[in-house]
Write a structure and sequence with these properties.
Elements lengths: L2 H11 L8 E2 L2 H7 L2 E6 L9 H10 L3 H6 L1 E4 L3 H12 L4 E6 L4 H9 L3 E5 L3 H15 L2 E2 L6 H17 L5 E5 L4 H13 L4 E7 L4 H8 L23 H8 E7 L1 H15 L5 H12 L8 E6 L12
Helix pairs in contact: 1-8, 3-5, 3-8, 5-6, 8-9, 9-11, 12-13
């Protein structure tokens, strides 16, 4: 993956996605002591950055592969993203979802044309069910984040941000499976001017932080965090990119995540999900280090269950 492949990806998906706005907040700038530029992927189609990677992954398939459909396992944003992008591109989408996935997310997948296959709520069952559909239908499996075409797609959000604000000194992004921050770090490396990428990660699912310390993939014993989009562990494709291009990961606790989420809701008047608040929480936690800097923050999505808010 190089500068040309990322630039080509941006051109390839441009007509299928929104070029999302960049917002600022004078009050949050005062609180942080820095100039912050929020890339609002909560305004992306289906409400999250995942639309970028899902669209690119489908567009890279052969016509024969497209004719047989795509399959993934996801309980959240990638399920919705793959369903919508497949619908737009005229491709059948099979979505394996755990039986305990929120009904609001199941409804969204159905609205976007995805065919849901429910399975028991374990990672093993999700993988086995997806594999079974692959064999039965001949569908192509698309991983929610551990896929080079998905990573390139996710990197286009930061590429757009750097086109608008080329002199950013840092970009903060959340860390879950690593697709977004891996793509973001590639964009910063190829198109930034000495722009460093910093990840925000909940203490409750800090496998990426520990992996950077140990040099090997780590697992999470629990996933007890409100940031439900960040519960998945790093992949073997995302981890090496993060190792090479991400400067550091700052961990935050649940109170800090919810406080940052509330701050954005109250001061910027926009809806974001808990996972989306993690990068701002990370910056505010160590704001003395980042004073007077121009900093981009990827607001990853706004798909929140309004009947189950954390505040």
């Amino acid at each position: 993956m190089n500068a040309k492949s990322l630039s080509t990806t941006a051109q390839t998906i441009a007509s299928y996605i929104h070029r999302t706005p960049v917002l600022t907040s004078r009050l949050i700038n005062q609180i942080s002591g820095a100039d912050l530029y929020f890339k609002c992927e909560n305004f992306q189609r289906m409400g999250a950055f995942k639309m970028r990677g899902a669209t690119h992954a489908i567009l890279k398939l052969s016509e024969e592969q497209k004719s047989k459909g795509v399959v993934t396992h996801s309980s959240g944003n990638f399920a919705q993203a793959l369903s919508l992008s497949a619908q737009i591109l005229g491709v059948k989408a099979y979505i394996v979802m755990p039986s305990n996935a929120p009904q609001v997310k199941k409804d969204a997948v159905k609205d976007y044309g995805g065919e849901i296959i429910e399975c028991p709520p374990t990672h093993k069952d999700r993988e086995e069910t997806a594999s079974k559909i692959q064999k039965e239908k001949g569908a192509t499996f698309l991983h929610p984040y551990n896929d080079h075409n998905v990573i390139l797609g996710q990197g286009t959000a930061a590429l757009e941000l750097l086109e608008d604000y080329p002199d950013l000194t840092y970009i903060f992004a959340p860390v879950g499976g690593g697709g977004l921050i891996a793509g973001t770090s590639l964009a910063a490396n190829f198109f930034g001017k000495n722009c460093k990428v910093i990840g925000g990660e909940p203490f409750e699912v800090d496998d990426a932080y520990r992996a950077l310390q140990s040099g090997t993939l780590e697992i999470n014993e629990t996933t007890n965090t409100s940031a439900d989009g960040l519960k998945m562990p790093l992949g073997n494709l995302t981890f090496p990119i993060i190792q090479q291009y991400v400067s550091e990961i700052i961990r935050v606790d649940e109170e800090e995540i919810i406080s940052a989420m509330r701050l954005i809701w109250e001061r910027m008047k926009i809806i974001i999900e808990p996972s989306c608040a993690v990068p701002l929480a990370a910056l505010l936690k160590e704001k003395e280090r980042f004073k007077h800097q121009k900093i981009g923050i990827i607001l990853s999505g706004g798909n929140v269950d309004l009947s189950n808010l954390p505040f």
